[in-house]
């Protein structure tokens, strides 16, 4: 009986980890055909939609990944996050 609370706690922690990493799995398993809808959402909050879409689609086609949300979360997609311009700034929105 003493092990039962630990089993419940382990099950709860496993469930929380699964929920936490589900966004990562969603973001990293794209096909090229998935890029346009993901980039449309990614660029939906910016006032510079045309350049955002251009670079997002370029990054998605190379990396097959678009971070979740409209801003940030780039750590989910290392390729997307690490692709830089000649000046060293981020290439992907």
Short description:
This protein has four helices and no strands. The protein has 93 residues and is an all-alpha fold.
Strand portion: under 5%
User: From the helix content, strand content and strand pairing, which structural class follows?
Assistant: mainly alpha
Order of helices and strands: HHHH
Parts with pLDDT < 50 across at least 5 consecutive residues: none
DSSP helical segment count = 4
- When the domains are counted, the total is 1
Q: Give the proportion of residues in helices.
A: 55-70%
Shape: elongated
Reported for the largest beta sheet, the result is:
none
How many strand elements?
Answer: 0
Mean pLDDT: 84
Q: Tell me the span between the first and last alpha carbons.
A: 53 Å
Radius of gyration: 18 Å
Key attributes of the depicted protein:
signal, 93 residues, GASA, Protein RSI-1, mainly alpha, 4 helices, elongated
Textual characterization of the structure:
- The protein is mainly alpha-helical and 93 residues long.
- The chain has one domain (4-82).
- It is built from four helices and no strands.
- The protein has helices spanning 4-28, 35-42, 49-63, 78-82.
- Helix 2 crosses helix 3.
- The termini are far apart.
- Residues 1-27 form the signal peptide.
- This is Protein RSI-1.
- Keywords: Signal.
Q: Mind sketching the topology for me?
A:
Layout: H1 4-28, H2 35-42, H3 49-63, H4 78-82
